[in-house]
């Protein structure tokens, strides 16, 4: 496709999405639930063919020299298919919030005023690597009564095409328009430029990927953007805490999976428990090959640990999202310094405190300025599926409209409604 053809193609997708969004906004709950359950069934029935499509993507990615974390994100394993299928079924079973009326109040004039929840309309999704995002975005779009235009990364094109085909099959078989979810079929980057500059067709853009992609979208988009730039998440081990629990949680938060944006990249440890806690977690990190970038105090405590990869931390390390077996470690005086450090250096994504002190926990919850804040739990739980949203369209670290994991409600808006009985303004 040349630039002119891509522009025409994207305009066509936009017009089709806008028309489909009107039908989706008026679709009944039963039809949307039926489409989601059918999609779940099709995903499970298509494991073998999906694996074959995914294998082609993985082969190309490996040949192109993509990093191990990037290749890992591309994998469409049987477990991943089960997870997204379960997400579809979970969404199907959830109440339909479209048309819900809240806050209805009688006014002195006699009118009753409230708000109704409605779909945003059309959202554009631009994402990299993970093909499961195609299903997460499609399923949330269906449930929320929106239409979606999806543009996945070129590295996952075969997987995404196969998944999008199943989505459209489920829509049609359920009496809904196939154009409610459209995948951009070209890998030409010009399509992205077109998608983010069509306010007449697209109501919001949701980018998921590397920082450079999201910065570009935020800079060039002519429609609102729901986004987070990176995931520099922290786990703070407080004094007092349950040391054994803290070791388990800090291990999980870092090593359960290195590539997600909710993996902890920074470990803060209160001075009062550092000498007991750090050798225990350090031994686990050392056994798993995790490089520890330490401040002077934590490095002194960990210095005699056999097999440990210890590096002196730089100022940049406190800001870093590694997405790799690397973690920054700092000893802090206590909860005050931990909160100050997190609010200064974090990306305001997800941060956790491990503590036995109720007041410290409450202060952490109130004062840490992040989209998700946790007490005695792994940062890896910052996920729409784990939060009970069925699936997530992305994570927002902005403070307007949606914040944290964005599920059904984040893809809706509220409009004011007024019920009267002939009242006029005096």
Outline:
The protein is α/β, with parallel strands linked by helices and about 425 residues long. The protein contains 14 helices and 16 strands.
Structure description:
With 426 residues, the protein is an alpha/beta fold. Helix content is 43%, strand content 19%. The strands form four sheets. The chain has a seven-stranded parallel β-sheet with strand order 10-9-11-8-7-12-13, with helices on both faces. A four-stranded parallel β-sheet has the order 5-4-3-6, sandwiched between helices. It has a three-stranded antiparallel β-sheet with strand order 1-2-16, with no helix packed on it. α2 packs antiparallel against α5, α2 crosses α7 and α10 packs across α11. The mean pLDDT is 94.
List keywords for this structure.
426 residues, alpha/beta, 7-stranded parallel beta sheet, 14 helices, 16 strands
| Count of helical regions | 14
- Given as residue ranges, the uncertain stretches (5+ residues, pLDDT < 50) are none
Strand percent estimate? 15-25%
Main sheet record: 7 strands, parallel
Q: Strands of the largest sheet, in order across it?
A: 10-9-11-8-7-12-13
- Strands, total number: 16
N-to-C SSE string, H for helix and E for strand: HHHHHEEEHEHEHEHEHEHEHEEHEHEEEE
Q: Radius of gyration, Cα only, in angstroms?
A: 24 Å
* Helix content percent band: 40-55%
Shape: globular
